[in-house]
Amino acid sequence: MTPLTSAEQITIAITVYSRRDYIADAISSALNQTVAAKVIVVEDCGPDASLREFVRSQFGERVEYFRNDRNRGLFDNWNACMEYCTTPWLSILHDDDLLQPHFVETMLGLAKKAPAAGIYFGTAQTFRTGDRELDTAAPAGQAGWRRLDLPVLAERCSLLFPGQLFNVAEALAAGGVRKHSFFTGDWDLWFRLALRSAAVQTEERLARVRSHDGDDRGTNRVERMGWKWALDNLQARRNLLALSKALGTGFKFDRTKLLTEHPIPLRLLVRHATTFSKRILAYNHALFIASTPPHFPYAAAQLFLRMTGPKGIQAMAAVARAARVRV
Hints:
- There is one protein chain.
- This protein is α/β, with parallel strands linked by helices.
- It has helices spanning about 25-30, 50-60, 75-85, 105-115, 150-155, 170-175, 185-195, 220-225, 230-245, 255-260, 265-270, 280-290, 295-310, 310-320, and strands at about 10-15, 40-45, 65, 90-95, 100, 120-125, 145, 165, 200-210.
- Strands 1, 2, 3, 4, 5, 6, 7, 8 and 9 form a nine-stranded mixed beta sheet that branches.
- The protein is globular and about 65 Å long.
- The termini are far apart.
- The mean pLDDT is about 90.
């Protein structure tokens, strides 16, 4: 694995599909780094063929632009980023998210402290369009860092997507991104990379994640349909099986432990209950009942749902809407 020693080894790839609302801001955040790195845009064959001209009119030759000859989908477009990348290290940024100005500088400093890692992470902060400007992170190199614990990463991914930097050769050797992943493709790749070579994270905020409410966002659709926790559980099982095979130990998926440490959020469950199918509603009801309550209102809701069954979640949602309670 090529060690990370200079910014010339780094490419920042901005992925886009048929949207120009925020891409100029995303590209600017990649270009306006305290230590400059190569910047490319990878378009997944969207219907807006003029997007290339828009980007060129805004940034000229400061970025390279690639357009897939077919629609590859969200996760396979990340594989396309690796194919177009000519440097050993790559960071992928969605077209509506932002990097802090010292992202590259901090990654270089982190690599000096932990040179054997195959992937480095910062932390990210969520914001909505129109929010007041968020405070920038501390100067590069001042925050603490840690090696990610494999069993913890196997069971749960708390890493927001932008603000990562990974070794391309290691990612390809790990199999790249599973292109048919519906929801957990990033977590799946991060874990396989961490299993091959260490994963390191700084607690410094290096990225900003734009939050959307619309159904057109893939993560939002998964949440609204009630699939999120089912897919999370499936990915955790897959990760723990891989960990057990790699280390020769008996790591197993323990749903009780997971629901004790990370109970199903009541707020999200009630917010989206009316969009669940009967089967998914029953599944999420069972997970909620099995969760360890973090406070008394949660325990009271569990008692109510034990008596009313899955339909009780929809009843709670109806009451919240009638009372105009934001959940």
